[in-house]
Amino acid sequence: MAETLEGKTWEEMLKQILPPGTSIPDASANLDYSIAIEYDGPPVGYELPTVDPVSMSCFTSIPTADPFSDSQSQLVANGAGPPPVMDPIRLPISRIAGCAGSPPLSPRGSRSSESVVSVLQNQEFSDASHSQSPGSPHSSATVQSSPGRQPNQPANEVKRVSVVTFENVQKSDNNEFYVGGSASPQYVAVSKKEKRKRVCYRCGKRKWERESCLVCSARYCSNCVLRAMGSMPEGRKCVQCIGQPIDESNRSKLGKSSRMLSRLLSPLEVRQILKAEKECPANQLRPEQLVVNGFPLRPEEMAELFSCTLPPQKLKPGSNASNGNTQVYINGREITKTELRVLKLANVQCPRDTHFWVYEDGRYEEEGQNNIKGRIWESALTRLACSLFSLPVPHAASTGPRDEAPYSARTVPEYLEPKRIQKLLLIGPPASGTSTIFKQAKFLYGSKFSQEELENLKLMIQSNMYKYLSILLEGRERFEEEALSNICENGSVERHTEGGDGNDDNGRALSVYSISGRLKQFSNWLLDIIAMGDLDAFFPAATREYAPLVDEMWKDSAIQETYKRRNELHFLPDVAEYFLSRVPSPTPLNLFLSISASARNLFFAAIEVSGNEYEPSEKDILYAEGVTQGNGLAFIEFSLDDRSLLAEPYNDNPDIHSQPLTRYQLIRVSAKGMNEGCKWVEMFEDVRAVIFCIALSDYDQFGPPVHGNNKPLLNRMMQSKELFETTIRQPCFRDTPFVLVLNKYDLFEEKINRAPLSNCDWLSDFCPLKTSHNQSLAHQAYYYIAMKFKDLYFSLTKHKLFVAQARAWDRLTVDECFKYIREVLRWEDEKDENYVVDDSFYSTTDLSSSPFIRQSNE
Ligand SMILES: Nc1nc2c(ncn2[C@@H]2O[C@H](COP(=O)(O)OP(=O)(O)OP(=O)(O)O)[C@@H](O)[C@H]2O)c(=O)[nH]1
Ligand SMILES: [Mg+2]
After folding, report:
1. Which of 9-23, 467-481, 493-507, 833-847 has the lowest mean pLDDT?
2. CA distances (Å), 62 to each of 265, 387, 423, 743, in order?
3. Where is this region: Disordered (predicted)?
């Protein structure tokens, strides 16, 4: 260009710019090749002409058309379609009468303001709703899809709308604009969230494949989806929609696979996202959406509904929960065919159009007749049929006045109802070992862990790893502060970074516990979300992004130094070490020659456990804290072999072996949130026994109170005792036998010789005998604690407390516990039948298999 500038006329230069053969215009006065530049000279002495601004009161913006695509121009060039026509911009008059041939229904917005070529209704974009405008994903304006067009219709001759309105001009979050118009009078009332089909809401580009937000239906292309939806803690939702309920029309899509996600993410990640989508609280039906007999459910009713043994599946909002089709009504609800069959079995006459009224205790009459015809569930057969078909059987409590209870769970001998499931509620203060016992029961008597359960356990272990990591990081901060203040006070340099000058680039002091800025950032992030209780929301999707940093951190010498002082990290559970210090094989040693052995172990454990390929071993599962992620309700059903040693004396009847085994349902709940007047326990009023688990080793430990955060640390045994008292005081457990499992005997045994029981005020009057009778201190102390609880229980309930000992890590001891519990249930049954086997208060202290059974320290 430089040469062309020199000595060439403007005609010559122009010739080079214009296509060959084009004539050069004459240099006339009007010819203007000037380019606008900003004037920055001195102020002018005259008034500059101005253009009145267009009134924007009705428009948020002037709608513009999409760029004219290559394929469109191709079609035009081939004569396959007429040239595109720009839609005239409409004035904000409320209605403009239109006719066939009037412009397509909605001028569209585009971020490109250079191109003003109108939308060509081209095959490429053909779709029933192709002419819609891109709209705000979060707006609720009305939009009408084009009624579509005939296959042979020319591309641009879509059916024109008769009326176009401009009332719904919207501005979206990302500054794109659209105008929604009502197509024709019959569509005006149709209010549907506007959809910008084929256009990505984020980049505005047309893409075939998009993923849409379950809340606002915003659609994103594969380039944008991860940016717009983040780590998808609630599945496919834009980040700003997280926490909001889904659009109900999307309910059937919950958890259904997505090709785009499968392409972008690993199968495990997709599974995790889809699982979160299906299961996260925000995406669940809300009680008020479920209508039963014309009334929306209350939260507690909903909780009750979903806590039953066979909760309803695939409920839809507003669905008719009665779902009957028999023209027979009970309490205003049309019953189902199965229910009708059971009624017939119960000898209830029910011709069509009968309206029954059934009372809580099973008495029934024809509506308005005031003439009780009988009791529906009177016969065992009816009850059996009901339990077979998962139909309700009235609670023992509701079958009339308590003392007459005609068929309470207690008084119907087990063998009359072989199918009845004996529910066992397993409960205990945090970290007492309930999950461990639950998992042992599953290993012992239950079915294998399903793929899904394994996946859950894996996630749980992985998220626990982050918790342990955060405890380490917190410890590191503490140690760093200590070290730095030591340095300041003593001028001591002994803990300074080796080889460094003790300062970082910014002149800040450093200690062996100091980490780099990047790691510090990660550390702050993790500690923040843990402190906010948000880990579950971020895990696993967001934490995955940090995986490389986790690796880096494990390798860091500051973490290694912190880990050396793990005994000072009180919140680091014992099992953390198990998970943190595993060395997987094969060991790529050469990679890690430069780091110490313990750091290497941490590193491997982190990589192994946090990796996708990690599969938890049986031991991992057992040692992992919790049963389910989030530690919710968990239950299993199993039966026990009845031919235990303890059972034999009662099994004289040879028929007993031909009868089906008793089924048990073990329900494990976290005791968190249980307090006086607590409602949810009432859901378990029909349990056969409460298994209350306490960690013996808690007697010298202090922890934050279960209720309330700012109170001083409390002795954990005292906390367990309080929770125990609260539980036994629950009215719904008034007649329920309690089995106290004193767990963690292994830790207790090891601890008792160095820490006296008097660490716990309640246990301060323990007075061990000289161990002349071969009775170890631990045995005596255990027995003493058992008696303390029995006394307490008796004073409050006037009943006997059954006590068993366990080391939940040892499967055999858990097996013994359950066999003991089975015996307790038998004793209770027989007691109810007046075959009182054992009435002494003290003889039920412990398992008869225990060597300490007759050794009281009284
Ligand atoms: N040493 C020892 N540790 C045990 C025993 N039973 C459980 N643990 C460990 O104690 C910790 C707490 O046990 P969990 O079974 O998770 O306790 P939990 O009752 O479910 O407690 P939350 O989950 O807090 O409700 C886990 O790390 C267990 O591995 C035991 O008998 N001996
Ligand atoms: Mg647990």
Report:
1. 833-847
2. 39, 67, 68, 73
3. 68-89, 124-158
pLDDT at res. 773? 61
Q: Is 426 helix (H, G, I), strand (E, B) or coil?
A: strand
Choice from 425, 427, 432, 436 to test ligand 1 binding pocket (greatest atom count within 8 A of CB): 436
C-alpha dihedral, 56 to 61 to 64 to 67, nearest 10°? 150
For the chain, the structural domain boundaries read 211-279, 322-389, 422-447+629-642+661-834, 451-487+513-584+600-623
Measured CA angle at 97 (ends 91, 103), to 5 deg: 70
DSSP string, 614-678: ----HHHHHHSS-SSGGG--EEEEEE--S--TTTGGG---GGGGGSPPPEEEEEE---TT--TT-
- Region of 420 please: left (phi>0), alpha (psi -120 to 50) or beta: beta
Confidence at 599, pLDDT banded by 50, 70, 90? very low
| pLDDT tens for each residue of 789-799 | 999 999 999 99
pLDDT at 149 over 50: no
Nearest CA to 109 out of 164, 163, 160, 61 is that of 61
DSSP-derived letter for residue 398 is: G
37-46, 298-307, 329-338: which has the minimum mean pLDDT? 37-46
**Phi and psi angles of residue 399, each rounded to the nearest 5 degrees, phi first:** -95, 30
Report whether residue 697 contacts ligand 1, using a CB cutoff of 6 Å: no
Helix 337-345 vs helix 380-388: crossing angle, to nearest 10: 160
| 631 Cβ inside 6 Å of ligand 1 | yes
Task: Tell the residue number behind the tokens 């699982």, with chain if given.
Answer: 275
**Confidence check: pLDDT of 760 > 60:** yes
Longest dimension (CA), the chain: 126
CB contact at 8 A, 727 and 434: no
- Pairing mode of beta strands 210-212, 219-221: antiparallel
Whole-complex ipTM: 0.98
Q: Higher confidence at residue 245 or residue 506?
A: 245
Structure tokens at 481: 């502060």
Burial of 284 (0-12, 13-18, 19+ CB in 10 A): middle
Gap from CA of 26 to ligand 1 centroid (Å) = 94
| Ligand at shortest distance from the CA of 672 | 1
Ligand 1 nearest atom to the CA of residue 434, by list position: 19
Q: Which of 427, 435, 692 to mutate to test the pocket of ligand 1 (most atoms within 8 A of CB)?
A: 435
> What is the per-residue pLDDT for 502?
61
Please tell me what DSSP assigns to residue 213. Answer: -
CATH 1.10.260.40 fits 451-487+513-584+600-623, yes or no: no
DSSP bridge pairs for 164: 96
Please tell me the pTM assigned to this model.
0.49
In order, the DSSP letters of 115-127 are --PPPP--GGG-S
Q: Among 826, 732, 798, which Cα is nearest to 402's? A: 732
Of the candidates 768, 770, 741, 740, the one whose C-alpha atom is nearest the C-alpha of residue 752 is 768
What are the pLDDT digits (tens) for 474-527? 899 999 998 888 877 776 544 444 434 466 655 556 788 988 888 888 888 888
Cα–Cα dist 288/316, whole Å: 12
Does ligand 1 have an atom closer than 6 angstroms to the CB of 435? yes
The finding on whether 610 has its CB within 6 A of some atom of ligand 1 is no
Evaluate whether the domain defined by 422-447+629-642+661-834 bears CATH number 3.40.50.300: yes
* C-beta atoms surrounding 791 within 10 Å: 12
CA of 450 to the centre of ligand 2 (A): 19
Q: Is the CB of 670 under 6 A from ligand 1?
A: yes
Instruction: Check: CB of residue 117 under 8 Å from CB of residue 68.
Output: yes
Query: Measured between alpha carbons, how far is 28 from 823 in angstroms, rounded to an integer?
Result: 113
